[in-house]
Amino acid sequence: MKTYKIAVIPGDGIGPEVIEIGLTALEKVAKTHGFAIESKAFPFGGEHYLATGETLSDESMTELGDYDAIFLGAVGTPDVKPGILEKGILLKLRFEFDQYINLRPVKLYPGIETPLKGKTAKDLDYIVVRENTGGLYTGIGGIMMKGTVDEVAVQSMVYNHTQVSRCLRYAFELAQCRSRRTLALIGKTNVLTHVFDLWERVFHQIGESEFPEVTREYYHVDAACMHMVNEPHRFDVMVTTNMFGDIITDLGAVTQGGMGMAASGNINPTRTKPSMFEPVHGSAPDIVGQNKANPLATVITVKMMLDFLSESEAAQAVDDAIASVTSAGFAGLGTVETGERILKEL
Ligand code: IPM
Ligand code: MN
Prior knowledge:
Helices cover 42% and strands 20% of the residues. It is α/β, with parallel strands linked by helices and 346 residues long.
């Protein structure tokens, strides 16, 4: 029987609560679809860091490197200064495992309320391809004359041709597989004239020579935000830089019913190193242990992981289960009860 090795990092706050449901759903669907899950839990996160001083050691990275995928809940504790866990865990995984694509679907499931007036499930079903290892996130820059009135702080948006073309190629391939075959580049060619000149040129070169059947569109990022609210049906696949992708996918998340519905896959398309799947939300320390967290973002994350593992039928089964639960309405249900409904559907 095909067996997938999954490294599980429940993390902090509501992470363990939602991961438990996600993992149970994954194991259930494995049974019904004829494959096996071999999972091991790893303790990384804020609590582990406070207790041991380790964020993610090189030995741990080597061990994680043997897995088919990493399933992560959320990391972050109020007592740890911002930046340490982000850089030491999340960004370390993304960078060192070269997960250069961050896939973030923006889909309104039936029965879920959107703050977008008059919009329904048919208006909102697109996916954002966020470049995931370059741009402002590389941290290139520095500070001079700190603490004086002459202080200078620089953080550069850095992209090379390879990073841009591999990300665009992934987005084109994805767009080509979808029925609308439309890819929108989201940039800021009117101001960031160096970086987006490169993106725009490579976008049209690759599109014209390799994907002539995919329609190419371009939006400035500010206008894209406006359309994501007013006319989200314009979008099918969007591709953008790391920083813009981070920002617009929080907007996208709100339109699909909130962070509790937003899932993501940090993908290494070469499959030489593991990809990582995580709900977009954080550890939400304010609601931990209260049975309040929406586990569906994590269940959608499981669906994405199954798609990545080429278990399409299992992925479809999970997606159908989510749609049944949202159609029936789950407002007022707790984390555990929502998880039980998913299991029942499966
Ligand atoms: C996200 C998060 C991360 C990011 C943070 C926690 C480093 O906001 O996954 O969107 O900026 O990528
Ligand atoms: Mn973010």
